[in-house]
Amino acid sequence: GNISEERMDEFNLPMYYASPQEMKEAVERNGHFSIKKMVELFEGSAEAYPLTRKTIASSWRAVLEGLLKEKMQLGEEMLDELFDLFTRKHDESSIFEFVRESSFTFVLLKRSTTN
């Protein structure tokens, strides 16, 4: 394709979706921040809030576009092609079927003071 295999291999973006409890534990283990506020903003089932393939692709693009532009030097045309492909692959794959419930948590952190 349009992106060399070497450049693809250099780009690694591991993702993990932590529960609110896991987030709290991770912040406490880190020790550099304290949690000032943690609120679950949205919780719902896939039936109540259906996600279309376009919504999913647009959401991922909003999150990743800046990173892909900076780290992979992708232009608008290449990003359009990438997320069009993502949308098509979404239709062909069952990987997204595991999403039955979703939850978004807002976490307000305060940097710990160090002496």
What does this structure look like?
Strands 1-2 form a two-stranded antiparallel sheet. It is built from 4 helices and 2 strands, in the order H-H-E-H-H-E. The termini are far apart. The mean pLDDT is 80. The protein is of the alpha+beta class. The chain folds into 2 domains: 12-47 and 99-115; 52-98, no CATH class. It is extended, with a radius of gyration of 18 Å. It has helices at 5-10, 20-30, 53-72, 76-92; strands at 33-45, 101-111. This is SAM dependent carboxyl methyltransferase.
Sum up the structure in keywords.
alpha+beta, 4 helices, extended, 115 residues, 2 strands, two-stranded antiparallel ribbon, 2 domains, single chain
Task: Give me a quick take on this structure.
GO terms for molecular function: methyltransferase activity. With 115 residues, this protein is an alpha+beta fold.
